[in-house]
Amino acid sequence: MTYDLVVIGSGPGGYIAAIRAAQLGMKTAIIERYPTLGGTCLNVGCIPSKALLDSSEHYHQAATEFEGHGIGLSNLKLDMARMIERKNGVVDATVKGVDFLMKKNKIDVYHGHGSFVDRNHVQVTAETGDPVVLEAGKIIIATGSKPTTPDMFNYDKKRVITSTEALNIDKLPKSMVIIGGGVIGLELGSVFARLGTQVDVVEFMDRIIPTMDKDCSRELQRSLKKLGMQFHLGHQVTGVKATAKQVKVSFVDKKKDEAKELTADYCLVAIGRRPYTDNLGLDKIGLATDERGRIPVDAHLQTSVPGIYAIGDVIQGQMLAHKAEEEGVFVAETIAGQKPHIDYNLIPGVVYTWPEVSAVGQTEDQLKEAGIPYKSGKYPFKALGRARASNDLDGMVKVLAHQETDEILGVHIVGARAADLIAEAVALMEFRASAEDASRMSHAHPTFAEAFKEACLDATGNRALNM
Fold first, then answer.
1. Which residue in the list 58, 69, 300, 445 is annotated as catalytic?
2. Does pLDDT of 464 surpass 90?
3. Is 402 labeled as catalytic in the residue annotation?
4. What is the pLDDT of residues 88-132, one digit of tens each?
5. How confident is the model at residue 166 (pLDDT cuts 50, 70, 90)?
6. CB 151, CB 241: distance < 8 Å
7. Domains of the chain and any CATH numbers
């Protein structure tokens, strides 16, 4: 079979690239090694984790907040198996949506492991049947990533698990140790903490979500502690040993050189992900990965082999589904002869705990390091009428603007609906708006979005109107 474009991998980057290419008139095929389309995001990542996050938050509110709203409950109980069943239903419906989009856009789907034969041919090897070789003028590598599991952690998929296995625990554990205080660990940790599991987080750095602004780290940790989560920051794990029913995690306080130990039902390893290029046949086309396993690309996301591109988690940058989507569209349009654009500084990051955390642009530390003069404005959620009405009082909005030009350089939000609120900041920053521009825009009252306007007022040096 001969195609204009073959995409290896059907995650958000891959399937979006295939759709955009088909829209632009290319004969397109997509290869997926697993039985269902959608990659990690739809099957064992973004979508199922958000389903569980929402379910667990409903349960937590019913258990802790409904009475304050005048809603009495008796015999509140958790049906963990039903919660997992609902999550699976959400995943199934979403995956079927991608199947529909492939058919709608006349994209041929091949299930099996894809590997390069040469620069224009990819072999698809399925579990049954003979291998199929596809010929293509252009090829996109969109094979995503896998959890990082060092040998010393003794990852067994039973007691020592990653996010993949955590999403299918259908009996609530009494305790869980999470190695890693980043996005994945905190999101899943909050799911189980809300439901009643004792969660301990062991983090090598001196704060959680260390790549985000320090104020966000502090605000989120304060909120998660209210769930009963305990944090062991600045600690290095030295060993993980599992038995049939428990797991023991050994770690050391880096400052005090003090050895510690925790025993729990599960140990969730959440220290990051690695690019997944296993058995892809890169050597057959002369491609080598860098020291972190990533595929080097140029400004057009083309590899050193003409006609072969790479996007998403297999290249440098944040491992985010929406980043991969933008890159998928970018490559498809580049191949079609268009002049697309991506501003990586304006790709937002989100932590889907509750309260949520979102950010776009530069952190305060990054601005200091770059020597950029800036000013800061903040506004707490507890001062919002809408936040008081819903009892979502935790969090704040922080706006960083250029000291001289007032251009918005970074926005950092911890609070209810932060994941949605950040879109306003992204839009304004795309058009290089100033903090004053944002402060003079009308925001509906009462809303959570008013906190952004008030933080911008504070950044301009004007007093917030609702403080």
1. 445
2. no
3. no
4. 999 999 999 999 999 999 999 999 999 999 999 999 999 998 999
5. very high
6. no
7. 2-147+274-344 (3.50.50.60), 151-271 (3.50.50.60), 355-460 (3.30.390.30)
